[in-house]
Amino acid sequence: MPELPEMENYRIQLSKHILDLPITEVVINREKSINKDAETFSAELIGRQVIFVERRGKHLVFHLDNGRRLVLHLMLGGLMYLGSKTDRPDRTTQIEIGFGQEMVLYFIGLRLGHLHVHSAKEVEEIMSHLGPEPLDRKMNESRFIEIFRKRRGSLKTALLNQEVIAGIGNCYADEIAFTAELLPSAKLQQFSEEDLSRLYHSMREVMISATEAGGYMEMSFKVGDTLTGGSNDLCRVYDREGETCPRCGDVIVKGEMNGRKVFYSPGCQHDR
User: Fold this and answer.
1) Which cofactor does it need (predicted)?
2) Which of 55, 81, 92, 130 has its CB 3.0 to 4.6 Å from that of 106, i.e. a possible disulfide?
3) Mean pLDDT of all residues in 129-133
4) pLDDT value at position 25?
């Protein structure tokens, strides 16, 4: 599932290419991916312009020039591709939005994800449950420690809870735990302030590095894009079952927590 680094990479690239261009075409191949009937949804977009692209947690919010908003959540397996009709990817698309004669934004893999149109007030309500952003300027070490000191249960569960902190998912939760030398199953109530401080700095290190590297998406965003997917090689435990730990030399283990896969190195990750 695309997480903060992947969605931030998309936000940056979209902001370079689609702002202030008129939407000239909307193709709906799967009505379950939108929140209105296809005709109404298309009418809301045709002739409009995207004036700003915002990211909130794992969502992207496209601000339209009439005050309306498009809210995207890619969920599991979702992708975007920006290109022409001649270089469109050989993938099934659920939604296509055309900008002029040459540029189309393709939404791929939205079997679980969605693209919904809302008012600004509705978006505010939709996002109201989300916790703070991990890389927000206000998310300093003191605030982080204050938030996590109050939590109970496992480290990974807390990192994945979008109401605690927004934008971290399965991959980066494991990478953060590894960087902090903590087991994903470690109990937060046992953590010292030093443990929480190490966790905070690990979170920043992992999320900044992954964002700068373009996230781990499997497909380029557009022709000539060499950034998207660059953080695949940065993962040290996630999806590395059976490989040698780069820190201690032990074998990386794949387990399960609350129905989610989890990867860790038993040799150098501990309860605290």
Assistant:
1) Zn(2+)
2) 81
3) 97
4) 97
